[in-house]
Specification:
Layout (H helix, E strand, L loop, with lengths): L7 E2 L13 H10 L4 E4 L13 E4 L2 E13 L2 E8 L6 H28 L6 H7 L6 H10 L6 H9 L12 E2 H10 L3 E4 L10 H10 L4 E5 L10 H10 L3 E4 L20 H11 L5
Parallel strand pairs: 1-2, 2-4, 4-6, 7-8, 8-9
Antiparallel strand pairs: 3-4, 4-5, 5-7
Helix pairs in contact: 2-6, 4-5
Amino acid sequence: MNLGDGVADLHMHTVASDGTSTVAERVEQARDRDLPVIAITDHDCIADSLTDRVAHHDDVTVVTGVEVRADLDGEKVELLGYFVEPDADALEEVLAQAREYRTERNRKLAARLTELTDPRFDYEQLADSAPGMLGRPHFAQRLVAEGVVDSVGEAFEEYLGAEGQAYVPMERVPHERVIEALHDAGGLVSLAHPGRMDRLDLPAAVARLAETGLDALEVRYPYGPDPAITVDEAAALADEYGLLHTGGSDCHGPGSGKFRIGDVRLPRAELRALTDAAGIELP
């Protein structure tokens, strides 16, 4: 399966969360790569410029999406919502709660890094300087800038990742509430990057989520070596539970280490299945 064959990259982030590009810059990047459809899926928030479920910018269509961290029986899952109404009340409440949990985690993380490293990590200063919502990538960039580590990857390995010295777990919104809110906003719900979920019994997790209303599985994703599940296996798992297919590059933009917009694309037929399910017509 060639991940670059297709017409839509349905997973990327902007400066509204932890990306390095604006929505407008994303549109230009998509145009440069002859990519007709993109979805903006920022963490726990929706960029202010996304005011409709879908927006057309001449030859590039932008789908309004969001990526929400959720709790599944005590474990973390990330759920992608697509074609959502940005101002839906229930969704706004869920995203506000998720952001509050993130703020609590970030305050604790700043304090822990201050204890472990020479630089002082002032939460308020970091939050004010972040172009969007403060996240672990911003802490990683600060660690690199201060010479504590040599790269963002090393920052996560040594300090910020689940096995890192400064790791702080984050409280999560129950998956049932997230799925319900995304559906109430007119959206479809996909489980993000299942190949990264090596801590879970994946078939059991997908079955549990499907019972609660999961619509799709992110089949196409740019995994490194030894993912928990391959792209082909993810496709088979999605079909087993009658789930639609989604896919995307999880691009964070220039300078992020993950500038890969359009490297992963969803084929037109699978995009059409999504738009039909959402009641959306694309050019």
